Amino acid sequence: MRLFVATCLFGMICVFSGHAGTKKVISPSTSAGNDQVDIVATVTLTEEEVTQKLGADPGRGIVLLEVRVIPKTDKPVQISPDDFILLAHDDGERSKPFEPAEIAGQGALIVSNTSDGAKAKKTGTSVGIGGIMGGTGGSPGNPKVTTMNSRMDSKAQGNEKLLEALKAKQLPQKESVEPVEGYLYFPLDGKHKLKNLAILYRGPAGKLDLEFEH
Fold first, then answer.
1. In sequence order, which residues have a C-beta less than 8 Å from that of residue 13 and are 6 or more positions away?
2. Which of 21, 32, 83, 180 has the greatest count of CB atoms below 10 A from its CB?
3. Is 106 within a domain?
């Protein structure tokens, strides 16, 4: 009897130890819909959690967005990563998602994020704030217009493992009547709080704003 109890206790300890060794990622979600589509989005902000989901480290400054687009009619919906914009309400910054090659391809992304064009930030797999948007307008809390520019540095080395992971899990560009899901990779500097972030859908199926409440 004592041997049986000891064996059970040992098994329970092993189970709990196994769970303790794996940190579960709990990411905030939001959703919105209209007559044509429903969209569900889940955001992952920390580098550790993004790495866990991708299976490779993309570096700092990358926000991972899991998107599921659910068509609601018999007519196919054209779906593309370019349909989505990450909006930071606190400073008005708007960013389009990166292509995998811009994060991990042969070359580093050099991003300038200024109101006067004087400063620039060079990044490798760690991408700076601003993305590859042509610019963002001012907002009530930030009346200045912020200009975003980028170019590729061909001398930097690529990361094949990361590139393969990014490509494999990216939201595909396709026309479908069935649900489509995948990842989007946005630039963010880490100073923004979740409650100030929103995902804007601006695609063939209309316009939707997905707000994060927490």
1. none
2. 83
3. yes
